[in-house]
Each structure stands twice: as structure tokens, then as C-alpha cells.
Amino acid sequence: MVVIGGSASQKLAAEIATYLDDKLALIETKKFPDGERYIRINEKINSDEQVIVVQSTGYPQDENILELLFILDTLEDMNIKEIILISPYLGYSRQERRFKDTECISAKTISKLIESRNIKSLITVNLHEDSIRNFYEKPVYNLSAMPAIVKYLKTHQSNIIKNKPVILAPDKGALNFAKDIAIDLDTEYDYLEKVRLSPEKVETKTKNIDVTNKDVIIIDDIISTGGTIVNAIKILHKQKAKDITVICVHPVFVNDAILKIYAAGAKDIISTNTLKSDVSSISLAELIAEKIKLIIN
Ligand code: R5P
After folding, report:
1. Does the model's pTM come out above 0.90?
2. Could you read off the pLDDT of 215-245 as tens digits, one per residue?
3. SS3 at position 57
4. N or C: which end of the chain has fewer CB within 10 A?
């Protein structure tokens, strides 16, 4: 097998190649002065070799998607028969339906672009909506990063987990992440709920657990502007929580999101490496490599 890393995911591609004990292909990517992209695969690959292409399609989404298509089409021109695509963060996954009339269902458009290429299957991580898999006819494996997050906490953050922190979802949508982590760490979990106190007054607070004097780990799938997490931290401070650690799967981090979260009082921010960021400490290489092994056997 040969592993190819697009420019959005080269370190992760290298780590996956190491886990699989496979060759990491050399690829040249650049942008011309007018902004157009160029790629070249600088490697002889036999047409009967399996190729793993790793490319997340986060910011700049359009460029990373186009680069991915360039790579896939070049491999097709090289007569490669079997390609598995790893796109740990699949851009445009937050527009999987029409929220208003006549909106473009962007996730569906992206699926058409990818599906029409010569890929055997797609591996991704914590899709914002699992139903996006239905846009594809080819197999889409939507991995959960939670086991890798738990493993990282047990191995590298024993100081955080020794105090039995409450695992908190900032909304009900993220409750399953909190539950998965809490069960594994044998600790409590909860979510923030909006309660209407009167026609004029809404209060957001933890649904079941009093976090007073307790450490808290907030877990979410995506942090984008950081607004959701900053709001959660403010509420937890009002409830007199102690140390607050923030964990996410996809570190989108628009503009100063990291700074805003630290400034709000987070003790630490930790994310996986589905996207590159200053806090992408949890590698999903092993999780992804194990799935590749299962698929190809
Ligand atoms: C929402 O459904 C997601 O799970 C995240 O909570 C949301 O995308 C975070 O966005 P932001 O960081 O901009 O508040």
C-alpha cells in the first residue's frame, strides 16, 4: 500500500503510513501566482497497488476539496485501481439539509464530487450529521474519535482525570460524546440545558449535576468561532465549577477562537488532529489505520 497526504493532512498521512508500515508517497503541491493550484505525485506507483489518500477539507475548504479532486484524478490517470479516501474532517458537513427554501445542500454537492471519483470507500471522523453518509452509494465509515480521546486522557492527562471531572456537553446534541467518555472514565456526565423561567427570562444550566467545586471537561464535535464553548464556560463559572478543560474533535477555530476560550477561563484546550491547529495533540492515526486494516482484509 502507498499513502498520499494532501497538503491539509500531511503529518497525519505520515503517521498513518507508519502505523501501517507502508510507504509515504512524495507529492508536490503549490499555488501559482494567480491563485490556481498545482499538484504532482512524485512517485512511481504500480497500478495494482492500493492507495490511501489522506486529505481533510477544512479551511480553505474550496482549495482543499479541489486539491483532493486533483489527486484522485491524477491517480485515475495513473491507472490506480483501488483508492481508499481518508477525509477526517469533511468540509460543508454543517449544511446537510435546507434550513431555508432554495438553499444549496452543500454536503450533497460535495458528496457528488467525491462519489464520482474512483474511490472504493471513504473514512471520516464524527461527521456533524451521520445522515450525510446517505448521500453516498459507496461505503462511508464514520469513526468516533471518543476512544482515542479517552486513551489520550488516560495516558497523558492523568492529572485531569484523577479528580473525576464531570464530562459536559455544551448542548444535548453532544450528549452522546460526553456519555461515551464518562462511561470509559467511570465519571459523571451531563449537558447544558436552556430553561425558560418566565416569558422574558431564559437560564442555561447543567441539566442534572451540580458542578460546584468540581472539575469539568467540556466535549464538543466542532469548535468554530468558540462562541458555544465561551458561553458554556461562563455558565460553569457562575455555577462555581473548578478547573475547566475543553476538548473537541474538529478544531476549526475561526480567527481568535483559541484565545477567546482561554480568556474565558479554560485551563486547557485539547483537540484531535483531524485538522491542523495549535492544540491538535490527539492523533487519530492509530484509529484510522486500524479501520483501514479491517476494510482491506
Ligand atoms: C453545533 O451543533 C456544534 O456541535 C458545535 O457546537 C458548533 O459548531 C460550535 O460552533 P461555535 O464554535 O461557532 O460556537
Report:
1. yes
2. 999 999 999 999 999 999 999 999 999 999 9
3. coil
4. C
